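Human: I wish I could look at a protein chain and see how it folds. This is the protein in question:
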Amino acid sequence: MIDRRSILGGAVLGAGALGIAAYARRDLLTDRNTALASVTAHSKLLIPPLYSGERDSGERVFDLNLRHGVSQFFDGFETPTIGINQSYLGPTLEMYAGDTVRMNVTSDLSETATVHWHGFHLPARADGGPHQPIEPGGSWTARFDVRQRASMFWYHSHAHRRSGPQVYQGLAGMIYVRDSESEAFDLPNDYGIDDIPLVVQDRAFASDGSFIYSTRMHNVMMGMMGDTMLVNGVVEPVFEAKSDRLRLRLVNGSNARFYRFGFDDGRSFHQIGTDGGLLAAPLPTDNVVLAPGERAQVIVDVSDGKPVSLLADGLEIMGMGDMGRGMMGSGRMRDSDRSMGNWMMGERGGRGGMMGERERRGGMMGGMMDERRRFTVLDIRPAESRRRAIAMPRQLATLPRIDPGDAVRTRRFVLDMGMGLRMMRGGDFTINGKSMDMQRIDETVRVNTTEIWQVENASMMAHPFHIHDVQFRILDRNGRAPDAAEQGLKDTVVVYPGETVRLLLRFEDYTDPDLPYMYHCHILEHEDAGMMGQFTVTV
């Protein structure tokens, strides 16, 4: 277990000098006579303000201001940050299916920024991607109808070649979409009481308390990772549970790190939702893996009254294999002292063990390097007096049917990184052999059509592949049906080395022959380095 004291000390590199660059000890918060003595033992979980906007002429209007700020993540240390309407991160925006929303965004930042509504189906001009820049001192307004199923989405910077550093400094927030169907279910739904949003981010801090964001080759190749966990902007937060059941809405807001979430006592819980909404039925499990950009909703029972901690094993994945790197099944959080070999060859396939039965059958063409870190996400302390547990519904959402026969065509997308000398120089980050070009439209899609997008990973790293505008369904991984946890609506999917994943997408409602949507790796340093393409939807 890595506690607050240990996360502030030491270098953060694993085998092969992967992950964060090896900063000298004097550059980190390591002076135990000053930094560590000033850190409080635990902090109360900060619940972001719930912002429902204002009604104006039939629209739900949100006024958002991007601003520089100063935050105190550790007592006695001030960290320069970026926030939305506050010093770090932003409020949780609340809206309802069927709303027409107007986002008025102003910027007091010193550089060009954007605000992307991650996971939303909307016109390209309102998407908030790199084609909707907000200049310093400028403003931008996005109008769109909320055509989402109820879920938790998020908003964050998507500035061209600057998404990584801007999100790292805090330009992100969460969005709750509600609808009548989900509200009818007997689920924990009291914001901040039994319905808890958790944005999880790893960060590195310098000795003066400032963030370390490095563009050294290792950090571009592996993505920027830190040794300190922030949850809603708090280190090792504590939450007093006043209900027997808690609904935790998790978003992996880190730039690059994958996490496997589970509880320190191994207790099981239910996953009820994915990126784009509720699953068809609650899924019993004891762990959930999220790549950057992915979200999940889980319900945990704390009616036994015992304190429990939500933990996250940080997974830094690099390897090569002819059948991918499954992490898709259930498997209890391993003890932190378990050997890497045993963990990689875990007795259970998929997202609970780095190498499942199908990977063992397929063999391993190359090595896999992984620096495992275990973070404390949330210490849950049940109050003496609590609301009684709500019975878990047996069924949840009715999901759209999946029929590959509806597809009018299949498109192929190959994710790749430079090898050999090119890799040592920072690599070539490409999709279908091309790096991002703002002036080039890579794909043109017809409105009111369904397509299959076949995403292949030719690189040595896992990549979370995000598509703007649509929520899709996963058809298969290397010809095998996705596990239950991936059978809901998704906008981000992990594609492991050597793996082929097929997605079913339908493009509706909005067309624009000139303004594109993006598809890209959601490791933000890879996105900034060129692993991104553009598509338009036309008549």
